Amino acid sequence: MIVYRLGHPTVNYEHANALSVVVPHDLLGLIYQATIAILLLVGFESATAMAGEAVNPQRDIPRGVILSLFIQACICYFFEYFAANFFMGDQYTATVDGQTVTGFAAALSSGAPIGDIAKILGDSLLFGNGFLLQLTIASTVVMALIGTALSSLSTGVRISYAMGSDRELPAVFGFLHGRFNTPHFGIYFLTALSALIGSYAVQSVDNVTIVTLVSNIGTFMLYGITCGVTLIATLRHLLDDEHSPLKTIVIPSLGLATNLFMVCGIFYYGLTGTGSAKTNSLTAIGISIAFFAAGLTYLIGDSLLKGKPLFLPANFDHPCAIDRTIPKFPNAN
Description:
By secondary structure, this protein is mainly alpha-helical. The protein has 13 helices and 2 strands, in the order αααααββαααααααα. The longest helix has 36 residues, at 130-165.
């Protein structure tokens, strides 16, 4: 994309220069873009999903997290974001309601703007092989989606297994396979649920946006709560000699504030936006609230039926904290 623009200076481009691409032009758009950019954390999830298999987790997991964030954010996300905006101009055309539109307006009318750009680039720079370039990029996207799905399922299954073991979900989620020792029921359930959500998302661009926003709201809430729990859990160690205020107070506090800000950004955009953007945001907010209400209802109802407290007492000792082993649960067979 960059090479194309440098070689075609006579085209009328949306951005006058490279600086115009990276300088924020609209606060609302900046907030909304940041809520989409949370997807770059998938690499972070991959780095931690198999932490138990690491030879030296204390050294390698932090390195893996930082490296994955750098690759995803700086190399993949920001570089492509810059290149695509730097490229956008009158050479990108589309027909909308019988009228020819260019640039961002043409991209808005397309279900796959990057694919359209690949066609232009391949035809111009690769001797008319735009369609071949499209197929090549599409194949890498498929591989990335498979890797992302496996990573997300691995992380999700670990969480559902732990919740099933603690009886915060039905006990069947805590069962292990008799032969492979894996939480197979959680794998089956989350795979089927992901397939249903994906079937809904592929129906339209609006559906994809709704699913993305719902996922991002959940992600912000999860990471924000994690930072909050980390902050509370480490307050008791403030007087320890090895206590690091940067790691236990500053970073968790910034993480909590930032994630809450991003959630508020989604709500703000939904309430003040226009057209399909507002509809999609409000729909995503409604679905997220419904999921939260359903989960809270189950948690309270299960607690009342079993007569167990919602919060563990201060003197509670988990079996894993005593013998450092994973408790054995009957398998589904």
